[in-house]
Specification:
Layout: H1 2-27, H2 36-39
């Protein structure tokens, strides 16, 4: 019984903190663009080793 009396206020405090964090993130535009971050790894920007005309480095050799 003592554990429930202690855990209920803790859970309410965590709920309030989570709600504040969620509304802060919405207010600061964290959820405005949900599509672009998932597509960024698929872009071919030519930043690989072949684009710089450098041979690939082997492990252990410098």
């Amino acid at each position: 019984m003592n554990a429930i009396v202690a855990l209920i206020p803790v859970s309410i405090a965590l709920l309030i903190a989570g709600a504040i964090a969620f509304f802060w993130a919405v207010d600061h535009g964290q959820f405005d663009d949900m599509e672009t971050p998932g597509l960024l790894p698929l872009e071919d920007d030519g930043a690989g080793p072949a684009a710089h005309n450098a041979p690939p480095r082997c492990a252990g050799r410098e």
